[in-house]
Structure formats: structure tokens, C-alpha cells
Amino acid sequence: MVRTVLGLVTLAAVTACSGRRATNPAEPPSSQETYQYGDCARYAGDCPGEGTLACALKTIVAKYNACTKHDDCVAAAFEAKCSGAGACPPFYVNRQLKAGFEAEAQREIDKYCATARCRAGGPCGIIEMEPYCADAHCTWIRVFGGPR
Predict the structure, then answer these.
(1) What is the pLDDT of residues 61-112, one digit of tens each?
(2) How far apart are CA 44 and CA 53, in angstroms?
């Protein structure tokens, strides 16, 4: 009897620490699961709604990245929280519109990460990059040694 009980306790401990954990059906959906933005399709990615947030940020950056020369473009900075957004590569925007982009992007990230249960992001693989104006929009180029 003692062996049986000990075996069941061991089995329960092993299975409790392995595999995917089931979510509590009474738990409300996370902000990542319910996140929506404009006409962006609901798409998961590595975390729920991650693709939707990516679409939102791509839509937002398009309003702030107009340029006529490389010096117009700068990297935006905001708190990525659970999203990993803007780390690699960063979002490059027009220097004069940077604050507007950062505020609007941060509002969306804050909504997305409000009750997050998943954390996105990972290694980048691009060592060095710099702002670049191409086709009248700020973007980035990989740097191979020295400045352009």
C-alpha cells in the first residue's frame, strides 16, 4: 500500500512539472488574446495576438516615417514590455515625428501587454544597423564595417 501511494505521488509530481499547462477555463482571456487594431487580421505569432500587434505597429509607423534624406531618420524608443517590439530592428521614424510615434506605439503595446501571459522576442542576428531613407520612408540598413 505504501509503495502504491508513493508511486502515485511520484507520478503526480512528475506529470505536474512536464508538458503544457492547461489554462483555467474560469480565467478571463488575456489582453494578448483579445487585442485588436483597426483592419489588422487576428494573427497569433509566437504569442496570442502578436501578429496583430505587428500589423498595428506597421500601420502606425507608416504615419511617422516620411523622409527626404538619411539624416531625417532616427530609431524610436519605447518600452516593449511583453511584446519584444522595436528591439531588433528598431522602428525608424522621422526625427521631427519621433515623439508622436513613440506615444502612439506605446499606447498599443500597453493595451496588448495589459494582462499578458506570454512574452515575445528573441535573438536578432543582425549585429549593427543604421537609419536609412529609401523611397521617401525611413528604414534601416545593415552596417558592414563603417558608416555609409
Answers:
(1) 999 999 999 999 999 999 999 998 988 889 999 999 999 999 999 999 999 9
(2) 9
Amino acid identity of residue 92, one-letter, is: Y
- Tell me the Ramachandran region of residue 95: left when phi exceeds 0, alpha when psi lies from -120 to 50, beta otherwise: alpha
Element (H, E) at 33: helix 31-34
Q: Provide Rg for the chain, Cα atoms.
A: 21
Q: Are 103 and 119 in contact (CB under 8 A)?
A: no
Angle between helices 50-61 and 98-113 (to 10 degrees): 170
Identify the bridge partners of residue 133 per DSSP, sorted by sequence position.
138
CB 52 within 8 A of CB 33: no
**Cell digits of residue 141:** 540598413
Place of cell 512539472: 17
Say how many Å lie between the first and final Cα of the chain, rounded.
76
Whole-model pTM: value is 0.77
> What is the rounded distance in angstroms from the CA atom of residue 49 to the CA atom of residue 63?
22
